[in-house]
Amino acid sequence: MAIIMHGSWTLRVSAHNSAIAQRFVVSGAETGNGSHDASDGTAVHVTGRQWSVRMQHRPAGQSWQDSRPRIGYPWIAAGLLRFELRAGDDELVLGCSLPASSDDTIVYGNARAYPGSSLFNPGRNDLIVIDPPVAAHELCRRFPALYPVIEKLYPERLRRFPRPEPQDELRPLVLPTGLPAQAQGLLLHSQPAARVLAALASAGDLDRAQAEAVAALATTVERSAGASTLGAGLGRLRRAELEALAELRDAGLRTAGEARPTSGLLLRIQHYQRSDVEMLGGPYSGSGERENLGFAITDEQGRYLFRLSREHGAPGVGRPDLILQSLGNGLTPTWESAPYSQVPNLQRIDLCIPNPSLQPKRLRPDHRVGQRGDELAAVERGLGGRAPANDADSHAAARPRLVSRTEGSWRGGLRV
């Protein structure tokens, strides 16, 4: 399977521990496309808004086959932000690095599925989140403590014959905890990065160019001190109502079933601009403006990584609010998170997705969508499944086709 990447990265073979031929294949980028032998020290600088990398091996007498990539968690050392891609049982380790700068926001974490019978989403500590489908009358009948809260924050959901809204199919019911928000992640402070990264893209000596970029950026790192979360209507609730919510949430989380990793899951990341009511601390409506930023895919462990960069015209905000969606066939959203507020430059975001949202439509690592016009096929296998131009003997070749894309902060096409 292909791992979706964003922006400029330097890929370097860190370890090659197999007698079987290994390589990595870059597709969909502006520079660096093609197959690259996995010999020790092999390095290539890749640029592009959204592209993919596949790790492959070739057993004796057989054609190239995709390896099982595993995404490592990122870290910052010597001015570089790094993470590793590991294939199989570490037969091939591919180091991915870029000069750390304040122009980047990188989110990463695990995506897990939890039983749909759980009342609350077990992945959120900052908010109380009830994932759809939400039948407010039935909830209040089963849990009377919820009635005065929903009546104050979401009275429209308690109408005798509520008018269905399209966004209600995905929009979670979000309630405040009343607890102080906890700061997470890292903040980066650096000199402007655009000119520095442009010089890196055209460099012949990658090691020297990276060292010069690190020196020019002069990036400093600090732990995020200020914490923020949605007001979610907190000011409308009495203390007794918050205490009742806390007791209900504690009881619900104690009985929650085991959450398990979800592999091969396609995610879409959105930049969310709160509505005026939400900015004033009112209930979450999900009606604010959104911008689709790009896609990520989970590996066999359920891990993902996404980079948002001003390098390719991403929103010029220091700490954005982000929403993550899981996608099914045809890029149809099957679930979406409540917003993560004021995300710092490097933050771990672990997702818990109700199992019914995944079971019928989850994208398996080697699944091929039957409809040729399906953009999900373009994202899953078209970005990385096409044989590189410098490879004549790969059996993974597919006839190129252009699928137009006009949404989000980029426009153009994906080659299938």
Q: So how many helices? A: 8
Which class of secondary structure composition applies to the elements? alpha+beta
Shape category: globular
How would you characterize the largest beta sheet?
A: 6 strands, antiparallel
CATH class of one domain: Mainly Beta
Distance, first to last CA: 14 Å
CATH topology-level name of one domain: Jelly Rolls
Taking pLDDT < 50 over at least 5 consecutive residues as the criterion, the unreliable ranges are 312-316, 359-378, 384-416
Kindly state the percentage of residues in helix: 10-25%
Hey, roughly how much beta strand do the residues contain? 25-35%
Number of strands: 26
Over the alpha carbons, how many angstroms does the gyration radius reach?
Answer: 23 Å
Instruction: Specify the oligomeric state.
Output: single chain
Mean pLDDT: 79
CATH architectural designation of one domain: Sandwich
Report on this model:
This protein is α+β, with helices and mostly antiparallel strands and 416 residues long. The chain has a domain at 3-104 and 363-415: Jelly Rolls (Sandwich), CATH 2.60.120. It contains eight helices and 26 strands. The chain has helices at residues 136-142, 146-153, 194-201, 206-217, 239-254, 276-279, 355-358, 375-385; strands at 3-6, 9-16, 21-27, 34-37, 43-46, 50-58, 65-66, 69-71, 75-77, 80-87, 92-99, 104-114, 127-130, 173-176, 186-189, 220-223, 260-261, 266-273, 289-297, 303-309, 321-327, 333-336, 346-348, 351-354, 402-405, 412-415. A hairpin with a 5-residue loop joins strand 21 and strand 22. It is globular, with a radius of gyration of 23 Å. Residues 312-316, 359-378 and 384-416 have low confidence and may be disordered.
